Known about the structure:
57% helix, globular, single chain, 449 residues, 2% strand
Amino acid sequence: ARRPLSRGTAIHERQSRVMLRALTLPRARALPRAAFSRSTTSRRDRARVARAARADAATTYDTSRHEQLRSGLNAKALNAKAKTFPTMQEVLSAIPRECFERDTGKSLAYAACSTAITLACGALAWACVPVTAAYWPVWVAYAFVTGTAATGCWVAAHECGHGAFSDDKTIQDAVGYALHSLLLVPYFSWQRSHAVHHSRTNHVLEGETHVPARLGTEDANVVFKLRGLLGEGPFTFLNLVGVFALGWPIYLLTGASGGPVRGNTNHFLPFMGEKGKHALFPGKWAKKVWQSDVGVVAVLGALAAWAAHSGVATVMALYVGPYMVTNFWLVLYTWLQHTDVDVPHFEGDDWNLVKGAFMTIDRPYGPVFDFLHHRIGSTHVAHHINHTIPHYHAKKATEALQKAFPDLYLYDPTPIATATWRVGSKCIAVVKKGDEWVFTDKQLDPVAA
């Protein structure tokens, strides 16, 4: 029998639920009428999308030809219906109470460490490396090292957005807003969309970020056609380059890979995308999006002034290169944490919060990246079970989950480069097979009505 929730754990569970509701549920107060009229999705477009969705839902495919590929998980996540998933209360009761305790001083120290490493790299390059074409190999190495260090700043701000940084909300939001703005991330906008991601993990229609295309949709058809024209190897290479180089800004600007129910969203313009139940920025969040824009615009203005003073090449070398590498890490972590050939998605009553959280995958990034990135990739299951657990307690929480739920906890030992190539090559679209949406890298024949 599971031990009952301790008083401390119960309090943290209630706090987490309140925060999740605050971040994800639409407010009763509607947006101004003018905002509705500015939606970039016309009624005709919405009707077309709705018709396509209904047609897709009505289409079934012959999955007898579906080849189930396997990752290092060896299909452990599949056939979820045959498993018994605990309640969230039972899961939280397995995690030691101290894992939920936030230490403002410790969180600030970790954020300061990441910031200091990043700034030190920048200062060293500024002082020692000429901004000339002859030194481009040095600048490439600098971009990788500094961008990798700056990802630690990104993760610290990520904890602020989740409420895992401090019990002092003012300090928490100040640190998160500053760090994310410096990395051109709209802090409150991302806070909201990322909370939706947590509240709908691996939901094939309502998920947020890296939601796979469904077989038969226009998105899936285009990708299959491109893969057929280029061949698997060249397609995979171009797919990875495109996702890592452009995926993050395109997501922020258009909602690409977000939930299909939300339409074309924009993290800087809150009136874009669907309204009502599936609005990404309902109620008060519209104002918070504009507040986030101020920070990003201020940093862009500072970069423009720097470029005018020191030259565009200087800004590209010192800032844009590391910025691109940080985006690479962000996309890599998010993609691999929830995607692989044998990790399913769900919809309707077949999905629930606990099941979605246990579809998260921990992976082996090694001690250097675990230190620099605060274990974001190797303890992500615990983070999805409860996003208010600080990263410095996540290892202990992970060990508790692994011990209490060995049949549900997912860890794939596949080397990261191998896993990345597999996901970029094989995770093309999902098809419904029983009560699960599973990945396929081949077109399947529709079943005649």
